[in-house]
Design goal:
CATH architecture of the largest domain: Clam
Radius of gyration: 22 Å
Oligomer: single chain
Shape: globular
Number of strands: 19
Strand content: 25-35%
Order of helices and strands: HEHEHHEEEEEHEEEEEEHHHEEHHEEEEH
Structural class: alpha+beta
Number of helices: 11
Strand order of the largest sheet: 1-8-9-10-11-12-2-3-4-5-6-7-13
Distance between the termini: 31 Å
């Protein structure tokens, strides 16, 4: 195992010295966690760091990771700006339409959190967040002349879309161990992103302390995560860690191809004082349409407010995730570390849809990709600045945070 190195190569520690929770499923979480992170938002925001490098005591990468692991912030309020730049082609708003259609395909309410939060798949977003322990959280998505709020207060979960004046109401359930239910929503805060990134750390990764920075008016250390392997599209991940609380304040992922960040999420303002109790109060406005989903929540459908940071990660841990990949209709995992490729068989021969059923869809999709050949046969690679996917003519899919050449190599090796 390669050591974690501090900026001056002091205080090195082995990966196996990390808390157990930080080493779960390192082999499997890439590229799926990275894909999940990348899918959280599409857009680009400016750098969120303040000017000036604070003078802080030296700390090793091992100590900084342990500081993150021990961080237990229970109360906060603040503003988060998030966005990514995957370099997707301009489809004239088609992406937004598709996302909106998916969002409306559930219970039909625009206030349903599992539908509304899919809007984070596109655009640049500003979120207001507040938390007071495990039973009170609020996230507000600030939109043009409108706002969507998701509120968890005790047993109640409320979603309110001011644009449509629709309300969602659910009940937070508990499992047999007394844990509150949560939904598999996209990451939203820097902590959510950081939790996912740290799971990918193994002996194929270099981790160092890269100086200090000020974020949202607070002193922070910079943790730098870089793949040692070639063939990955991930260049580096930088996490600004609050020097006092150990909570991640900013997350930036840059691609190996260079240029602007693919993902940039950070607090522009944060306060660790307890929010006012009224922050979490909600009464449906007069004339609003209220959709009740108590039955779904009590059965654990996932339509409940998550504990912050427990969304996407929950399905990516340990043996349960590995079994899910290997199970019927699931994924197989090829490669190691940052060069991991997820693959599955669609069961559909002929590659991209075509003919009368697909109309011109196959030709349209094909125009967005690159035709490739190899021992595996023929196929099309669809590329972004982070996540790439190869669809072969015999119906197999290979996807990962790897280059086009790495995908072709993986497909050849799988034959």
């Amino acid at each position: 195992m390669a050591p974690y190195e501090s900026g001056d190569n002091t205080g090195a520690a082995e990966v196996d010295d990390l808390p157990t929770g930080r080493r779960k499923a390192a082999r499997y979480v890439v590229p799926v966690a990275v894909v999940g992170v990348a899918a959280a938002t599409i857009g680009l925001v400016p750098a969120l760091a303040d000017s000036g490098d604070p003078d802080l005591p030296k700390i090793s990468a091992q100590q900084l990771i342990e500081k993150i692991a021990k961080s237990d912030v229970q109360q906060l309020s603040g503003t988060v700006k998030t966005g990514t730049d995957l370099g997707l082609p301009d489809l004239g708003g088609l992406e937004s339409g598709l996302v909106s259609g998916v969002a409306r395909s559930g219970d039909g309410s625009s206030a349903d959190p599992t539908s509304k939060l899919t809007e984070l798949l596109t655009g640049t977003h500003t979120l207001r967040v507040a938390e007071d322990g495990p039973d009170r959280q609020k996230v507000s998505l600030i939109e043009s002349a409108a706002e969507y709020s998701l509120i968890h207060n005790g047993k109640d979960v409320w979603g309110y879309d001011s644009k449509s004046n629709e309300v969602y109401h659910g009940t937070a359930h508990q499992d047999a161990k007394g844990r509150k239910g949560h939904t598999e929503e996209p990451p939203a805060t820097p902590k959510d992103f950081a939790d996912e990134a740290l799971k990918s750390v193994d002996d194929t990764t270099s981790v160092t302390v890269d100086g200090t920075v000020r974020v949202a008016g607070r002193d922070a250390y910079k943790l730098l995560i870089k793949p040692k392997q070639s063939g990955t599209t991930v260049g580096a991940i930088s996490i600004a860690v609050d020097a006092k609380t150990g909570m991640p304040l900013k997350f930036t992922l840059t691609p190996s191809s260079g240029g602007a960040a693919v993902i940039d999420a950070g607090f522009t303002q944060v306060d660790f004082a307890r929010p006012a109790a009224s922050t979490f109060d909600f009464t449906p406005p007069k004339g609003s349409k209220v959709t009740e989903n108590d039955d779904h929540a009590s059965k654990g459908s996932g339509k409940d407010f998550p504990k912050r940071g427990d969304g996407l990660a929950k399905g990516l841990e340990g043996d349960e995730f590995a079994k899910g990949l290997k199970g019927g209709g699931g994924f197989d995992v090829l490669g190691k570390g940052w060069n991991t490729v997820a693959t599955f068989d669609t069961g559909s021969k002929g590659g991209l849809p075509s003919g009368s059923a697909g109309g011109d869809l196959g030709g349209f999709l094909g125009s967005l990709g690159d035709r490739v050949t190899g021992k595996f046969g023929k196929g099309t690679v669809f590329s972004t600045r982070l996540v790439n996917a190869l669809i072969t003519n015999d119906g197999k899919v290979y996807a990962g945070a790897v280059t086009k050449d790495a995908l072709v190599k993986a497909a050849n090796a799988a034959k």
